[in-house]
Amino acid sequence: MSTDDRALFDYLLRLADSDLVLAQRLGEWVGKGPVLEEDIALTNVGLDLIGQARLWYAYATEVEARFAGAARTEDQLAFLRDGGDYRNLQLVEQPNGSYADTMARQFYFDQWHLRVLHALTSSRDPRVAEIAAKAVKEVAYHAERSADWVVRLGDGTEVSHARMQAALDDLWPYTGEMFAVDAIEQVLIDAGVAADVQALHASWRDGVAALCVDATLTVPAGEWMQGGRNRGGKQGVHTEHLGHLLAEMQFLQRAYPGATW
Amino acid sequence: MVTAEQRAIAATARAAEAPRAVDPAMARDEGLARAQAWAALATIPDPEIPAISIVELGIVRDVRVEDGVLAVDITPTYSGCPATDVILHSITAALAEAGYPGARVVSKLSPPWTTDWIAPEGRRRLAAYGIAPPGAAAARIDVSGISPRRRPAVPVPCPRCASTRTRLLAQFGSTACKALYRCDACLEPFDYFKPH
């Protein structure tokens, strides 16, 4: 089943890369959080995501060994791939911006992530199912937290409301990609391995809409989406921001190959 | 399809690879070895919450004798928990000290760790240490009803004065597994071990 293994490898990178890139973004807040509790919370969420990324990468290396004979290590996957080989959603590579921007990005992602992991707990691939069962419990807390902030800022002051609304509007065009299915995902959905994201779209939209009501915000209306026609982050097409993020994240391994703690 | 011959070859290979039984007591009495191992593991404090042992935390899932050596199944609490590597090291060190060097530690993800596995004694120790012990873990993850306006408020009693007039300050405290609360009765902040 080498064809399926190649698809599975790519799919595992999609899951892992989105976790890792978002964790790197959250790490940029270290020492700059608006209050100490937030600084700590952001990095704890980032830490969960790095832990999950490692579980996906570890499995990806085993799958790569099955079809390629030799496999790269977790670290090689994280630190020695260029932007075009990264499979993360474009949403998660967007810059931190204001706290409203960071929370809007987190909110859209958490609502998607929670549903995807929940679906993956019944994946026919037992390893995928057990990683998802572990991760979904952590992400349930991430989702509560980002929802809290969207309500707090949306239903806050005039300024916080305006900023939260602008952040939701600005990031909205990056959400379509989360529910787009290409040939790689379709193969795995048919095999009962991957989450059928199209089936999760309505639930995600309802969740976002319900929260916007509580937050006195308006669900963005635009239909136009980045990365349409399956030419987005999952296919290795990224916005200009990913390259800068990787330059910082990968610097040490690029400058000092094989360096260890 | 694995043939009997392949199984025999694999068994021989395993036997050749496996270190020899290091303690004759283990060969005589596996039950004793397991009991001594559990006792040794019960002395290992959690690196981040030293008031409670890794056994009380529910991290140790199984101890058995395999090919003459001890095998210990553990499960990580959170996937990104930085204490995991320290715990692995502490286990092999404690078992070696108890007379069982070369123990195999296997990390298992399934079933995923839950705070429901924290023993009653562990919960008492957490509270005495100033950390409110976790309530019952959610039976299932609810993907809807994520809004703070629709979420049922679960009272978290203050570990100092037992008042339930407490409120959430931050969903993450000093570690990923704890939330930060404040007691409105005694005005002290405290950590809450989140149900997980």
Which terms summarize this structure?
heterodimer; A: 261 residues; mainly alpha; Ferritin; 10 helices; B: 196 residues; alpha/beta; GMP Synthetase, Chain A, domain 3; four-stranded mixed sheet; 5 helices; 7 strands; disordered N terminus
The tally of strands of chain B reads: 7
- Provide the spatial order of strands within the biggest beta sheet of chain B: 4-7-6-5
Percent range of helical residues of chain B: 25-40%
What is the overall silhouette of chain B?
elongated
Residues in helix, % of chain A: 55-70%
What's the CATH superfamily of one domain in chain B, by name? Fe-S cluster assembly (FSCA)
Please trace the helix and strand order of chain B, writing H or E for each element: HHHEEHEHEEEE
Rg calc of chain A = 18 Å
Amount of beta strand of chain B: 15-25%
Architecture overview:
The complex is a heterodimer of chains A (261) and B (196). Chain A is an all-alpha fold. Chain A has a single domain (2-255), classed as Ferritin (Up-down Bundle). Chain A contains ten helices and no strands. Chain A starts with a helix and ends in a 6-residue tail after the last helix. The mean pLDDT of chain A is 95. By secondary structure, chain B is an alpha/beta fold. Among the domains of chain B are: 16-107, GMP Synthetase, Chain A, domain 3 (2-Layer Sandwich), CATH 3.30.300; 154-196, no CATH class. Helices cover 28% and strands 18% of the residues of chain B. Chain B is built from five helices and seven strands, in the order αααββαβαββββ. Mean pLDDT of chain B is 84; it is low at 1-21. Classes of the chains: A mainly alpha (261), B alpha/beta (196). Chains A and B meet through helix 2, helix 5, helix 6 and helix 9 of A and loops of B.
